[in-house]
Amino acid sequence: MSSRSSVEKISLFVITWPIFIEVALQALMKFSDVFMLSFVSDEAVAAIGVVNQLMMFTFVLFNFTAMGSGVVVAQFIGAKRLKDVSGTIANALVINLLFGLFMSAIVVLFRQPFLSMFNLDQSLYAYANVYMIIVGGTLFTQAMVLTMFSVLQAQGFTKDVMFVSLGMNILNIIGNYLFIFGALGFPQLGVTGVAIATAGARTLGMLILFVILYRRLEVKITWESYLRLKLAYVKKIMKIGIPSAGEHLSYNLSQIVITIFITMLGATALATKVYTQNLLMFLAVFSMAMSKGMQIYIGQLVGAGKLDYAYKQMYRGLRWALGVAISVAIIFALSGEFLFSIFTDQGEIIVVGATLLFFGLVLEPGRTSNLVIISALRASGDAQFPVMMGIISMWGISVPLAYFLGVHFGYGLYGIWTALIIDEWVRAILMHLRWRSKVWQKKSLVKPSKPVVLNEKSS
After folding, report:
1. 1-42: per-residue pLDDT in tens?
2. Average pLDDT over residues 198-204
3. What is the distance between the alpha carbons of residues 351 and 448, in angstroms, rounded to a whole number?
4. What does the pLDDT look like over 208-227, one tens digit per residue?
């Protein structure tokens, strides 16, 4: 299309639809692990759910660089500064490779103290231990995958990420099937097999992404760029990455504490929580995709100096995200017992889990608003406010309320979900007020070298 307005109106959709498929595939990857592990036992599901809570904590640390580099690259793209795009990516890859190797060693060497926090039964501990050795030892591959996903999407190459994610999912599902059920003569390894499939899929995905990234860059990265970090790029990455990842870090730490509370309620409650969160993950797929697309789109608009248009586009995306999230939440709530019966035949898990999906009708609008608005604020350069408010709300509301309602007053998972709902809605209101204030319009990281029209890229 020839007109600027026509290009701008379709850009958010063009950027977001491949991200939606990519996010759905990532959710499917987690879902397939849980679904196939349910054939081993509910205990195996509970154990891996605990480990994945710890793994998500490390992913947040990797996002210090991944999310920061994504925002900086998006703003450089908007400003048409392609050499700076390549320089930022080179710095981000080196930082996260070194940090990923460090975290892999930490997780493997200190896995026993980490697992001891959850007071797991012996059978659950054995499952969790072997999973941490295999998946934890290859965490550096996930650090690289997250970084390359972020910088490719920031350039508009969202289809590349979608196809790689699809391939990783197919490989993971095939690996799960072969090792869990012992198909085609493969050994029946259970949890060990799931860990091998996960690690293998991530490693191959990392290698393919590196080849794609190198071919997509208009200004190629030199070896010197990898060997010498440039302070200007690192400072920009960390200015966004540290507070942005800080908000996610706070959230995941609070979830780890809440998971510890749930272990006090017993293995059945823990398994119910894992099953419920995997289903709720599908509720958030469109919202997560919209938030990622919003981060890229708003970043490019801010880099191009189109601040008023960026203000309106956030609300446009938010309306779509809320409409889809609420519609899917209604479907899930009405289908709760059927959905849980896919995983387990334990009556208590099915009844409690199905009820929690009705809680999701209230939870999802708040969570969706947070995902979308915080991504827009981050993309504009306003990354500190969300993390400050997040820490206050999560640790001042979510964690203490989860303990008092869920454990102290004995409402169990219902009380814990009520605490989560209150936390999400308090933060959602605060984020909305921040966006309306337009303070974020003064936080841009880069300036366009000349007036530009957004270049709508597609692979």
Report:
1. 333 333 344 466 677 777 777 777 777 766 766 777 676 667
2. 89
3. 56
4. 999 998 888 877 777 777 77
- The separation between CA 154 and the C-alpha centre of its own chain, rounded to angstroms, equals 16
Per-residue b or e along 20-38, where b marks 16 or more CB atoms closer than 10 Å to that residue's CB: bbbbbbbbbbbbbbbbbbb
CA angle in degrees (0–180, nearest 5) for 40-42-47: 95
What are the pLDDT digits (tens) for 107-152? 888 888 877 777 666 767 777 888 888 888 888 998 899 889 888 8
What is the Cα–Cα distance from 352 to 44, expressed in whole angstroms? 19
Q: 34 is written with which tokens?
A: 């849980």
Q: How far is CA 275 from CA 194, 269, 271, 332, in A?
A: 17, 10, 6, 13
- Three-class secondary structure assignment of 173-213: HHHHHHHHHCHHHCCCCCHHHHHHHHHHHHHHHHHHHHHHH
Rounded mean pLDDT of 376-384? 84
Instruction: Please tell me the predicted confidence (pLDDT) of residue 401.
Output: 94
Q: What is the DSSP string of 23-84?
A: HHHHHHHHHHHHHHHTTT-HHHHHHHHHHHHHHHHHHHHHHHHHHHHHHHHHHHHHTT-HHH
Report how far apart, in Å, the C-alpha atoms of 183 and of each of 127, 200, 258 are. 21, 18, 38
How high is the pLDDT of residue 119?
A: 67
DSSP-assigned letters across all residues of 403-448: IIIIIIS--HHHHHHHHHHHHHHHHHHHHHHHHHHTGGGG--S---
61/51 Cα distance (integer angstroms) = 16
Measured between alpha carbons, how far is 25 from 141 in angstroms, rounded to an integer?
A: 18
* Residue 239 near residue 15 (C-beta atoms within 8 A): no
> In sequence order, which residues have a C-beta less than 8 Å from that of residue 167 and are 6 or more positions away?
204, 205, 208
Q: How many contiguous H segments (helices) and E segments (strands) does the chain have?
A: 18, 0
> Quick one: tokens of 333?
């709530």
Q: What is the pLDDT of residues 37-72, one digit of tens each?
A: 676 667 777 777 777 777 777 777 787 778 778 778
Query: Above 90 in pLDDT, residue 241?
Result: no
Q: Where are the domains of the chain?
A: 4-442
Q: Which two tokens stand for residue 306?
A: 């189109």
Label residue 346 by pLDDT band (50, 70, 90).
Answer: confident
- The phi, psi pair for 229, rounded to 5°, reads -75, 140
Q: Nearest 10 degrees: CA dihedral of 113, 117, 123, 126? A: -30
- Tokens representing 452 are 């530009």
Query: With 70 as the cut, is the pLDDT of residue 459 above it?
Result: no
